Amino acid sequence: MPFREINSKMVEATVAPGLRLFSQRGAMLAYRGEVSFTPNTAGGQGGLMSMIGRRVANEDTPLMTVEGNGTVLFGHGGHHVQVINLTGDTLCVEADRLLAFEGTLQQGTLFLGSQGGVMGMVRGQVSGQGLFTTTLTGHGAVAVMAHGGVFEIPITPQRPVHVDPQAYVAHHGDVRNKLSTALGWRDMVGRGSGEAFQLELSGSGAVYVQASEEKL
What we know:
It is a single chain. This protein has helices spanning 47-56, 118-127, 185-188; strands spanning 3-7, 10-15, 21-24, 28-40, 63-74, 80-93, 98-102, 106-111, 132-146, 150-155, 161-163, 168-181, 197-210. A hairpin with a 2-residue loop joins β1 and β2. The chain is built from three helices and 13 strands. Strands 1, 2, 3, 4, 5, 6, 7, 8, 9, 10, 11, 12 and 13 form a 13-stranded antiparallel sheet that branches. It is mostly beta strands.
């Protein structure tokens, strides 16, 4: 695994010949060895059309390609960092939460409207995540960012999980998501908890939740 957690807000990545990493621009804190950092302008987030779609929606996050032979320290904005290891499944995560990931993972873009139709689009707007989300598929490691640390909650067919959309960070596995409402008479009279919308995740996998409702 190329990522080693230094503390809750920094990871060290090992870069070797033939091993390519991607990171968010500006996330490099320090490095040792012969390492190069190149702006990634090839539209790696799901091809040219997906890149155009994201930029039209102002949801594109620029990346750097990291290559060479050495070690690199990554961190960004003092956010907490969580390393997630994928073993052939797919991680769905917002592009601005990606700190760094292995080049062995296949990148893509998922339009939220395709998961739940109009409600999928509503989920993106309510959660502040926009209409698109990034997917990473295959075998490799991903370092994601969050506020206040991350907690992993298993999802099973018998036990779906409901998450505050603002606390959602990412999920992986064979998981379906939809936005549900918890609107009752208390909300109508202004005495509700404020959790009128919930993100319901069902299937088999896991969801990562941050200890805050603050956006990055």
